[in-house]
Amino acid sequence: AQSVAQPEDQVNVAEGNPLTVKCTYSVSGNPYLFWYVQYPNRGLQFLLKYITGDNLVKGSYGFEAEFNKSQTSFHLKKPSALVSDSALYFCAVRPLGQNFVFGPGTRLSVLP
Amino acid sequence: DGGITQSPKYLFRKEGQNVTLSCEQNLNHDAMYWYRQDPGQGLRLIYYSQIVNDFQKGDIAEGYSVSREKKESFPLTVTSAQKNPTAFYLCASQSGWMSGGTEAFFGQGTRLTVV
């Protein structure tokens, strides 16, 4: 079965420190990979995606993600966290010819 | 403004009632989706439509129905058969279902509460 894991329910980081939100996946083939962010009572906003090419992709609001094929991981990173980055983050994969598969989400809290 | 609009933002349903959630997009996207989000859980797919006049059941379609008579509209009806409808419902669209590498755009959601 296709699945996406986000092993941490909650990540706490101090403002100004680097942050990492982890994502691993188990799907067949070479899927497309996505990160979304959700603020309270809002829809999901697209942050970045990996299709092919460079393993480090850059996205919105200073976020980037590193694709590691051998570890089937796609971790979200940011060099310096802001309090306004506090939100719920979802990793998603899209196997070829199939629907999106979303992870359970990781709540990021950036402490001032 | 291009985007995807869900209405209403909040909806209250009495036991035994059917209610319809609206989803409209002006992005000229072929594919549309309905997801359900419960606290502490990820998104679960209710129904999806790859193209107008066609739709498919997702993982949790029981108690829900949809239609796709127009490209821009994909309404979701929560029927009385849905035993636990209280949740946050999200509609999304994508340029083409076969365009696997394109991201989905989400509406702002409808929070449905059974009273």
What is the structure about, briefly put?
Chain A has 112 residues and is mainly beta. Chain A has strands at residues 3-5, 10-14, 19-21, 24-26, 32-38, 44-50, 56-58, 64-68, 73-78, 87-94, 101-102, 106-111. Chain A is built from no helices and 12 strands.
Structure in words:
- The complex is a heterodimer of chains A (112) and B (115).
- The termini of chain A are far apart.
- Chain A has no helices and twelve strands.
- Chain A is globular, with a radius of gyration of 13 Å.
- In chain A, a hairpin with a 6-residue loop joins strand 10 and strand 11.
- Chain A has 112 residues and is mainly beta.
- In chain A, 35% of the residues are buried.
- In chain A, strands 2, 5, 6, 10, 11 and 12 form a six-stranded mixed beta sheet that branches.
- The mean pLDDT of chain A is 94.
- The radius of gyration of chain B is 13 Å and the shape is globular.
- Chain B has strands at residues 4-7, 10-13, 19-25, 31-37, 43-51, 54-57, 64-66, 76-78, 87-94, 105-106, 110-114.
- In chain B, 0% of the residues lie in helices and 49% in strands.
- Chain B is mostly beta strands and 115 residues long.
- In chain B, the strands form two sheets. In chain B, strands 2, 4, 5, 6, 9, 10 and 11 form a seven-stranded mixed beta sheet that branches.
- The mean pLDDT of chain B is 93.
- The chains are: A mainly beta (112), B mainly beta (115).
- Chain A binds chain B through residues 4, 9, 31-32, 34, 36, 41-46, 49, 51, 90, 94-97, 99-100, 102-105, and chain B through 4, 6, 33, 35, 40-43, 45, 48, 58, 88, 90, 92, 98, 100-101, 103-109, 111.
Shape of chain A: globular
Tally of DSSP β-strands of chain A = 12
Main beta-sheet strand count, sense and barrel state of chain A: 6 strands, mixed
Low-confidence stretches of chain B: none
Rg measurement of chain A, Å: 13 Å
What is Rg of chain B?
13 Å
Number of E strands of chain B: 11
Mean pLDDT of chain B: 93
User: Main β-sheet of chain B: number of strands, strand sense, barrel status?
Assistant: 7 strands, mixed
- Distance between the first and last residues' Cα of chain A: 40 Å
**Overall residue-averaged pLDDT value of chain A:** 94
| Largest interface in this structure | A-B, 25 and 25 residues
Estimate the helix proportion of chain A, in percent: under 10%
Structural class assignment of chain A: mainly beta
Oligomer: heterodimer
How much β-strand is present in the residues of chain A?
over 45%
Fraction of residues in β-strands of chain B: over 45%
Helix content of chain B: under 10%
Terminal CA distance of chain B: 35 Å
